[in-house]
Task: structure prediction
Amino acid sequence: MSFHPSSSSSCMANRNPIVTVLLQKPILVVWLVTWAVFSEAMIVSKEEYLELKRHLKFLNKPAVKSIKIDYGDIFDCVDINKQLSFDHPALKNHTIQWAEDNTEDGTFYGTKVAINLWEPIVPNNSEFSLAQFWLTSGPYEHLNSIEAGWSVYPRLFLDNHVRLFALWTADGYRSGCFNLNCPGFVQVSEKVPLGKRLTPASAYGGEQYEIRLLAFLDPVSKNWWLVYGDEILGYWPHTLFNSLSTKADRVQWGGEVFNPNEGIDQDMPPMCSGHFPEEGYGKACFMRKMQIVKEGNILVDAPKTSTYADVSSCYNAIDKGRLDDWGRTFFFGGPGGKCIK
Result:
């Protein structure tokens, strides 16, 4: 989707980034980080990918067919009831769930956001650069989290293109995985696979594009559903989680970059457009229409938020507040390079 801001966007007022952590109650934080902790199970090399295909065959879940989609990507299709997700012990005897929008009872939690789409240059195979939302609960050592957005991650996707991703963990990233690389997320969409290449990406000083994501908790099944645009992608069964099985304590939006050899002599990759948020629309990355899902399945603008940048010499964030048709908005990103905390 290509678009241009409303005329009011030229009047956006700057607000200084604020660091706020309130763990006693649900919070919303606009943030950026330049670190990540992932288990090896969450990183897939070409050899591991081939091993996964062998594992799929061993489990008697051969592809029903392989389809070739945009830009030559090939995805293997399996019977929806035989996908790898159901090998998770918590999903024994699990029945496929479908999303409905006519439930009146219960409480929904979740988030909806439009994320500016870029394809940053990630020079190192083991580095990544991404933009996403987080729905989390619990202390870090036992963190429950579901996440989704776009990512350039050569080691995971085996190329340098920007792609759709989702991620989950129930124990502070000691287990869980990206996309369908382990049992967990249940894919129901036949049109949009996780890992899909996203195109076109925004151009500096040119056309701007975005993706729209929605995640919400079904009050009946208690499963967390993920929606891309108008397409229901699938869900994370509630049995995967403990503290996140009924609600999220925190909602966060932002960017993240990773270099396994982070240090003063190592260049960190660019975040999003590779330009600081002060440059504004068409040059810096943004998220807009940031909303949360409240009781009664009601979407409302995110309340007052705080911004956080782990290494402000390389990346930053500017909260723009509410901007007419854009809703709650913030700009973020930066060039990376040799970052000093």
The chain has two helices and 21 strands. Residues 3-46, 48-66, 91-106 have pLDDT under 50 and may be disordered. Residues 28 and 303 are 8 Å apart (CA to CA). Helices lie at 46-58, 154-157.
